[in-house]
Write a structure and sequence with these properties.
CATH architecture of the largest domain: 2-Layer Sandwich
Helix content: 25-40%
Strand content: 15-25%
Number of strands: 8
Number of domains: 2
CATH class of the largest domain: Alpha Beta
CATH topology of the largest domain: Alpha-Beta Plaits
Strand order of the largest sheet: 2-3-1-4
Distance between the termini: 7 Å
Structural class: alpha+beta
Largest sheet: 4 strands, antiparallel
Length: 184
């Protein structure tokens, strides 16, 4: 059975769209996924599925959340190989990696238009370093994410995409958790 990573956008942020991770694992079981593990409270889940169709899995999870919890949540799905390739392709230098709290992997639901990416860079008021690569943005928040005006809403509006971000440490924890999943 394929291993699937799902990243839920915007749950348990500011008291909105609250989902306990035990309830999320229960939902995944009810949806037919097995061996589900969650990480932190910000919406990372790894499971086994009886299909490798990421679009179908995404739709199933989104519909299940709507039915069970009563609100819409966008979900990004990827394989362990996808995540490893994303991490391997990161553009961060050693100095940036030594400050992992300033690094964000921003997962996009589609490839943004090049002019929109240029607009995001050119009209950014902060000193963030923005790299675009297909359905990914790699961002280094030079002055820290807390002070930045470059938030998820701005990214989505400018690029006309749905996005969800994970910091370096969370991304590395997801990769480490994948070690628990041995091939069938």
């Amino acid at each position: 059975m394929p291993v699937i990573i799902s990243l839920l956008r915007g749950i348990n942020v500011g008291g909105n769209k609250k989902i306990k991770m035990a309830d999320l694992r229960s939902l995944y079981a009810d949806l037919g996924f097995t061996d589900t593990k969650t990480l932190l409270q910000s919406g990372q889940a790894i499971c086994r599925a009886d299909t490798a169709d990421l679009t179908q899995i995404q739709a199933t999870i989104e519909a299940g959340i709507q039915e069970r919890f009563g609100f819409d949540v966008q979900v990004m799905t990827l394989t362990p190989e996808d995540l490893q390739a994303i991490v391997d392709a990161h553009p961060f230098d050693d100095e940036q990696v030594s400050d992992p709290g300033k690094i964000a992997f921003v997962f996009l639901d589609s490839v943004p238009d090049a002019p929109a990416v240029d607009d995001l860079r050119e009209n950014n008021v902060g000193r963030e370093v923005i790299h675009a690569d297909g359905r990914m943005l790699y961002i280094f928040y030079t002055d820290g994410k807390g002070r930045s005006k470059l938030d998820n809403n701005r990214i989505e509006r400018t690029l006309n995409v749905t996005a969800t971000a994970r910091n370096w440490n969370t991304t590395m924890k997801i990769l480490a958790l994948l070690d628990d999943y041995q091939p069938d």
